[in-house]
Amino acid sequence: MHIGVDLDNTVLDATESHLKYFNLASGLSFTPDDVNDFYLYRLYGWDKTERDSIYNQFGRDIHWNSVPFPMAIETLKELFKHHKISIITSRPLFFRDVTVDWLIHHKINYHNIVFTENKLQECIESSVDVLIDDGPHYAEQLALENRPVILFEQPYNKNVRHDLIYRASNWLEVKRHIKHLSN
Ligand SMILES: [Mg+2]
């Protein structure tokens, strides 16, 4: 199978590292329990422009210091032996270097990496068989186009339901879904 893999809040804990640097920038002190929005910056009352300016300033540190979720690296290592793995991230190209360096640092193998906010189009054009992602909008877009998604559970995607959306709360469940889908 061709498996698309998101990074932030799928392979790694982006919430924790964003909060750390956004708290630093704002002087506020939010914790993961406060997060119930895919667009975490809205917690801080920032608009898109304010968020972009903070993100440009701290993005490198945010991404470099993100910690992988338990079993994510081990599972990807195993999947890489049997499947084509494309990392599909909506991070801007501006953060390509830190992203690739982080993947090398954590010894994550993949065949392809794409930076795009239009994941549906990428999945169609590259014939991705299943996308692993936490984004509620991506999951819904793909499912509506008859494409299966493994939805990595986060507080902001709890209510997303569809026959083609397979929920996973950890990487062992991701692995189980992949096994089922590749049979
Ligand atoms: Mg994500």
TrEMBL record:
Enzyme class: hydrolase
Superkingdom of this protein's organism: Bacteria
Entry annotated with the keyword tRNA-binding: no
Hydrolase found in the keyword field: yes
Keywords on record: Hydrolase
Assigned EC number: 3.1.3.-
Matches recorded under InterPro entries: 5'(3')-deoxyribonucleotidase, 5_3-deoxyribonucleotidase-like, HAD-like_sf, HAD_sf, Nucleotidase_putative
Family annotation (Pfam families): NT5C
Family note: Belongs to the 5'(3')-deoxyribonucleotidase family.
Protein name per Swiss-Prot or TrEMBL: Nucleotidase
Organism per entry: Alicyclobacillus fodiniaquatilis
